[in-house]
UniProtKB/TrEMBL annotation:
<feature type="transmembrane region" description="Helical">
    <location>
        <begin position="62"/>
        <end position="82"/>
    </location>
</feature>
<feature type="transmembrane region" description="Helical">
    <location>
        <begin position="190"/>
        <end position="207"/>
    </location>
</feature>
<keyword id="KW-0812">Transmembrane</keyword>
<feature type="transmembrane region" description="Helical">
    <location>
        <begin position="22"/>
        <end position="42"/>
    </location>
</feature>
<feature type="transmembrane region" description="Helical">
    <location>
        <begin position="335"/>
        <end position="356"/>
    </location>
</feature>
<feature type="domain" description="Acyltransferase 3">
    <location>
        <begin position="2"/>
        <end position="351"/>
    </location>
</feature>
<dbReference type="InterPro" id="IPR050879">
    <property type="entry name" value="Acyltransferase_3"/>
</dbReference>
<feature type="transmembrane region" description="Helical">
    <location>
        <begin position="142"/>
        <end position="162"/>
    </location>
</feature>
<keyword id="KW-1133">Transmembrane helix</keyword>
<feature type="transmembrane region" description="Helical">
    <location>
        <begin position="168"/>
        <end position="185"/>
    </location>
</feature>
<dbReference type="GO" id="GO:0016020">
    <property type="term" value="C:membrane"/>
</dbReference>
<feature type="transmembrane region" description="Helical">
    <location>
        <begin position="242"/>
        <end position="262"/>
    </location>
</feature>
<dbReference type="InterPro" id="IPR002656">
    <property type="entry name" value="Acyl_transf_3_dom"/>
</dbReference>
<feature type="transmembrane region" description="Helical">
    <location>
        <begin position="301"/>
        <end position="323"/>
    </location>
</feature>
<feature type="transmembrane region" description="Helical">
    <location>
        <begin position="268"/>
        <end position="289"/>
    </location>
</feature>
<dbReference type="GO" id="GO:0016747">
    <property type="term" value="F:acyltransferase activity, transferring groups other than amino-acyl groups"/>
</dbReference>
<feature type="transmembrane region" description="Helical">
    <location>
        <begin position="213"/>
        <end position="230"/>
    </location>
</feature>
Amino acid sequence: MVAVHHASYDYMPRAREVMLQWFDPGTYGVMVFFLVSGYIIPASLERSGSVRRFWISRLVRIYPLWVLACSVAAALMSAGIYRSRGGPGGLIAVVAHMTMLQDLLAVHGILNVLWTLSYEMAFYLLTVALFMLGIHRRSITVALVFSIAGLLLGGILPTAALSREWDGDMVIVITAIAMAGTVVLASRRYVFGGVLGGVLALALVLLNGRVSPGEGLVILAVMFTGTAIYRVERAQIGRRAMASALGVVLAATLATGVWRVYGQDTQAQRAWCLTIVSAAVTFGLGLALRRRRITRSLTLLGRMSYSVYLLHPVLLAVMRVTFGNGPDRPSHGSLPLLILFVSVLLVSSWTVWRMVEVPMQRLGHRLAVTSDEKERTKVAPIL
């Protein structure tokens, strides 16, 4: 959905313009992703109960393809094919990207889609912090707090405050050190390590996001709503409490977009509301149908969705140069080029999934098993 949305700027400009008056497919795609991530990620941590295993599996799952996509983008940028998105250059930009929190460090990602991974990483840090503090089952409370905070604070807190008021490069360096520290310490079962990561995530979302803090808090609320739904299915939360909380979170999310994010833009407000409701309905339908048999093609598309997500901006850049389309040379669109884009994207994504993602996932599993064996022989520290 996100890939086609970005391609529509080149290949369906008129249809895109009309559609955005009512519905934003990009926001829809990422909100469904955030709900699914919130539903899945805490479960992967709690099944094993090992923070070390969690970090190994997450980092090995995310970073290899991320490095590949960013490297290709950097090479194309050097060749003048791909546009720089700004932000600090040189080594400090690399450091910001390596934390995967670059969007919360006031740094534009080298790929325009990397911003979602910054909030994904913040969610990981908060999930680990709650788990190590023993309050991870209070997902409803967490979702409610974030949704209401987004509504109340969204128009008050400034964007990128830390990077503007302090030395932006120093904020990046401190974040990188804290990030490394929290992963290492939490993996060794030091509670302080988990808390450090949670505090870091909260500080960056509240005080240093590149977008409105209200929008950042809404994203976290959506993710923890996914977690709360997972807990309902495990009978850890009552259905009535969940239903009431869902109503509050949805209302606060809609109000934040209407009141705090889009101001007086009635068209954007309308699109925001319809998009958020559509994402919620889609997730609900997915849950209702999850036990039914799914076609192999859809299952495969889901497995290689990360490759599709990271590779499509690079492919768009290449096609813009090759066929002369894009923002520099607007056209009436081209359905054949859109079909070509989707076809090449699916083939290349499948290839990368098979050659990069699958082997790395197997490696991550082996490393996690080895880590578990070592961890069983150690006494857990508690401080």
